[in-house]
Hints:
The chain crosses the membrane at residues 12-40, 61-83, 95-113, 125-145, 165-187, 199-220, 240-263, 295-313, 319-337, 358-390. This protein is α/β, with parallel strands linked by helices.
Amino acid sequence: MYLRFGWVLGNVGLFNTLLIVTLSTSITFLTALSIAAIATDQTVRAGGAYYMISRSLGIETGGAVGIPLFFAQAFSVALYTLGFAESLVQAFPNLNQTLVALITTAIIGLLALRSLDIAMKAQYIIMGAIILSLASLVFGKPLAGVDINPLGAPVALPIAEAADFWAVFAVFFPAVTGIMAGVNLSGDLKDPKRSIPKGTLAAVGTGYLVYMLLPILLAFRADFPSLVQDPLVMRRISLWGNAIFLGVWGATLSSAIGSILGAPRVLQALARDGVLPRSLRWLGQGSGPSDTPKWGTLLTLALALTLVLLGDINLIAPILSMFFLTTYMVLNVAAAIEGFVRSPSFRPTFKVHWIFSLAGAVGCIAVMFLINGFATIVAAVVSLAIYLWLERQEIESTWGDVRQGMWMTLVRMGLFNLARVPDVKNWRPHILVLSGVPSRRWHLVEFASALSHNRGLVTIASVLPSGARDTHQQVTMEAMIQDYLERRGTQALVRLVQGQDFFEGAERLVEAYGLGTLVPNTIVLGATGESESQDRYCQMIANFHQVQRNVVILRYQTPQPRSLRLRSRIDVWWGGLKNNGGLMLIVADLLRTSREWRNAVVWLKLVVPNQAAAEAARMNIKAVLKRLRVDAVAEVLISDGQPFDKILQLSSKTADLVVLGMATPHENYSQYYTKLQERTAGLPTTLFVLASEDLDFIEVLDND
């Protein structure tokens, strides 16, 4: 305000200066509205912006913003005291700038340690100095001997010195970013819900009035060349010139005190929430009736003194500004999401439409890139790295946040936008695994996970005997299985049902499970070896087929030792694209492209009666694979009168997975299934595929 406002006005003229002030203040005003909405919805304790963000968007997002925000505020103390020392040396050239900055930093640190009340009372003295400087400017006089034309064109500068509108905007914008001073003291306010909205909005309004008045005064009292060339032109047009020095000193000291009060309180909140490493939890301690974070203040003071000794920190100053703007942007995002989701728990007394908060977030991002694109990217990378680190720590919070509501809103929108008729271009397996206890049949879970690529939905299901568990016990078991899956790194839903027997319960689950059009389209089963239940097992498969659920039966064999061979070959015994052929190719290709089977080669095997048929079959298969863009090796086998079962056994005895199609359920299906198991006995792990959906799987493969 004191050192750059004249330069801004001289470069772009009065009208554009007023436009820059209005645009800049609009962004901070929108942010202030978001702050007011969040502050009046929740009890705001110590931690300011970090506390508000963590309670809205989660502890990871709060920490990703809060940790850089602490360092930005701590480093800002050094920036402001160095700025104070620099201006003091201009008035008293015999002083040592570094020594002045060190002494000033130490004094404001002692003020913050001594008492918050004393530090805040010092702010009144500083505010008096600023008011005095502004009053001196208002009652000042125009420059003598210059041609003043307030509505004329700005000064014409050499190309190397000229600045366009947005460059000037970027220089001015930091002047409106002090709106968090009151929010940072959230834990010390008697009534944060009342004080934060009132104080923040009043600060924005007061700043806007002052910033709109000053360029008008400057334009009518100084010519544009003087405004550009003399940073302290205000001294020359004020009633008492040295009052401008008082204003500069007051502004820098006020900002330094605000930062040294705010930074330790953010650090204290971070430590108490468990965001900081365990070895730093002592930083969460407070002392006295006001819970003053003395250890955090001492650490902040030490960092500031270190930076003052280093002297010039202009290289990191832009990045610090980005962290402040990132905080404003995330606060706007939090308010926008809360307003858009409209959870019943979000009931702010200060209501703001979510579109205004979204506009504030977009404005913050735009300004960040305008000011310094490189610093914006660095700040984003640092915040993302902290977020990912905190996510890996799996910190448990005792509060809910808006993310669950956001996901619920997105799920609802997705469900209602899913087509009732399956879209073959976007088909993927949504799998229901009838695994029983997952730890006993982990191969079924592992297979389903590989098949889904973490893109489709996987549900691990089990049937409990009727009456074996009450509702509470069943929910507890589901939670235990969910925890087991997560510990093994598997993303899946869990569903337990009760039934008179396994088959009745499984049929009822398949018939009822799902939400709208989003239902499992593929059932994964283990092969049964119990002859007494085989009829019922085959009847269950027939029922699944009737309700158009694809059936995949995995007959598992313990794999060969890893040192010899593991998951390197998939044999698909193919009879063409019709019936099960398309789904078999899809399953094989999905497995081949999964992490678990990434080294596997798919062999597409076809048996023909003689050599004449073999040549035509090879050409046909190669053409199909090329058209469908499936990475597989075609192998045509000539039977020469040998039975298929013998060729199958000889050709696939060293495979890691054998894929075979199953006949459509019919009468005597149990006999067919028994014979199928006998014919394939002795093979490695075998997958039996039955395509049941009313869907042309050829179109899933062929999107031309």
